[in-house]
Design a protein that fits this description.
alpha/beta; 5-stranded mixed sheet; globular; single chain; Nucleoside Triphosphate Pyrophosphohydrolase
């Protein structure tokens, strides 16, 4: 999958990076029948993010994405395309994260989210917005924590790329 961007807020040497923990994740712009996408609002930390998350056990990226969408958005999805990947070097936590981004559509009915306890504590909720509205919200986000700064930066890279591909 095409590399869209590498995000690092502090310069990380190859030697330092070799000691980082590696994490893979799958994320998506999930479209409903009205052309809106699911966006998660993290109210306690003041930012928006796309559904998705890390692989558990021996899950493939696609399996992880489908599980995360069931949990976070409350629906089954059909993956319709690949957009690209974003790498994050989170120096404070010594983590290299690689997120693979997909296009998907709701398969069946929208249900209720089944957020994990930490997501409930963070104030997660789902909003369905046009992609252009989602980009505007992310552009105005002011994350209150280190992780949120990476999340907003990577989601904007992906959504801008997805918008180019879906409107051309």
């Amino acid at each position: 999958m095409k590399l869209l961007k590498t995000i690092e807020f502090e310069k990380v040497s190859p030697e330092e990076l070799a000691g980082y923990k590696f994490r893979q994740a799958a994320r998506a712009a999930v479209f409903d029948s009205e052309g809106k996408i699911a966006l998660l609002f993290v109210s306690k930390k003041n930012y928006y993010k796309l559904p998705g998350g890390g692989c558990e056990g021996n899950e493939s990226l696609e399996e992880a994405l489908k599980r995360e969408c069931r949990e976070e958005v409350g629906c089954e999805i059909k993956i319709t395309g690949e957009i690209g990947r974003v790498i994050e070097h989170r120096d404070m936590w010594k983590i290299k994260q690689e997120s693979f981004y997909y296009l998907a559509e709701v398969f069946g009915e929208k249900g209720k989210s089944a957020f994990m306890p930490d997501e409930i504590e963070a104030g997660f909720s789902v909003k369905w917005l046009l992609p252009s509205e989602a980009i505007k919200l992310l552009e105005s986000d002011k994350p209150s924590d280190y992780e949120g700064q990476f999340i907003v930066a990577r989601e904007l890279v992906f959504l801008r790329e997805a918008e180019k591909l879906t409107t051309s």
